[in-house]
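Quick illustration for those who missed Monday's session on complexes.
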Amino acid sequence: MKEKRTKIKEVLSSDLIGQKLMVMGWVRTKRESKSVAFIALNDGSTIHNLQVVANAESFEESTLKKITTGASLGVFGEIVPSQGAGQAFELQAESIEVYGEADPDKYPLQPKRHSLEFLREIAHLRPRTNTFSAIMRVRHSLAFAIHQFFNEKGFSYINTPIITSSDAEGAGETFHVTNFDLDQVPKTEDGQVDYKQDFFEKEANLTVSGQLEGELAAMALSEIYTFGPTFRAENSNTTRHLAEFWMIEPEMAFYDLQDNMNLAEEMLKYLVQYALDHCADDLQFLDKRAADEEKNKPQNERNELSLIERLRFVLENEFERVSYTEAIEILKRSKPNQKKKFQYLIEEWGADLQSEHERYLVEKHFKKPVILYNYPKDIKAFYMRQNDDGKTVGAMDILFPGIGEIIGGSQREERLDNLITRMKEMDIPVEEMQWYLDTRRYGAVPHSGYGLGFERMILFVTGMGNIRDVIPFPRTPGNCEF
Ligand code: 4AD
Ligand code: MG
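Prediction with 4AD bound:
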């Protein structure tokens, strides 16, 4: 009969001394003397390894030889008090099955610290490292916490389309979706691409945001959220941008901009608290890792707070709410602007903020998360609600230390005439968006929403420095491996 498997997390968190059980996992390291082998086994349920002790006399030499870093095992044995330092108990092996060997001359992961750059090249194997398995567990926990947060509040989870014919942000950064043979694209008489002959009989693309469809659902269910992949063909090779990333987009009927900010702040704090409560072991590991990384940075770029202190800090402080106009004044007077240290100098009202400005406000000036609101309409999307001053819209961005923008959102323009005028000014195809405009024609209400970049949130919670390291298989310009 096949023995029931016990997960290593359960073994390590219970007092099972004297019990016999079966564990399964992958070998992290093996230390060996003539008489005994110590095997560190990890099964991904926790950052910690279980020490397995195999006496040489009980096993064939050929079996022990197969047990190398990366090999997969099932081990049956008894939990006994440990003789060695480092663990309270260990598993005394009685039988070992080697499921799969990992040729030590070829297996790329050695029991030492590998660079993140190297690990990106073997992204198919990197979840087997401590760092990446910790990040993936935190990622899972945060995804779960997001659903729990909205579920507790009575929001409905909506799936918006991934293939669409609209460009919600209007920034023209979409990936085309087509079924054409690209060597023989059908053309119309006047030489244009004839999309009528394509799969959808019109131009289609991958979605950049589920917001517009989310708004439709909010006009019936009141409070909804989407949580799905979004795609942007922007050529930004930065540590904060992916071509494929996951976004959480709540949309709420009857919410104004203040309500929107309140919900966003509450949600971010909920997620941080959830991670502290449910990912303590992984966060402790990542905290230590981040502290080691800090040592390689120049003194003036080091974080004053450790990772876990930064998470606590977010929980314990109210976010600073500042209008764009106030922020511009602060930036104009700032030292890096006066001394021309910013790459993009802030000269006048209306300037788009770069991440250097966002990070100055958060990290140097306010020293806490900042919600910037009421941006100039010309640097924001067509759907944002126009303020009475004729110059600004009810936008809000949340800026986080070490990250910059983590959330972008707004109150939406619910007045049909205002919306159409703005769409025309911004060359948004009004005719094709009649379905969207219908929400303003029939039973329109004030409403608001925002988008949280899931990977940016994970960056913050794990203390990692590059967004490519918090998603299993990053897609960036020139990189679509695996
Ligand atoms: O500010 P963005 O572009 O806003 C929207 O898409 C709105 N439709 C959201 C809404 O109101 N429903 O994007 C929202 C967030 C950003 O604040 C950022 O965290 C993340 O998505 N984001 C990216 N994350 C990774 N890679 C990229 N290329 C990203 N672009 C935006
Ligand atoms: Mg934005």
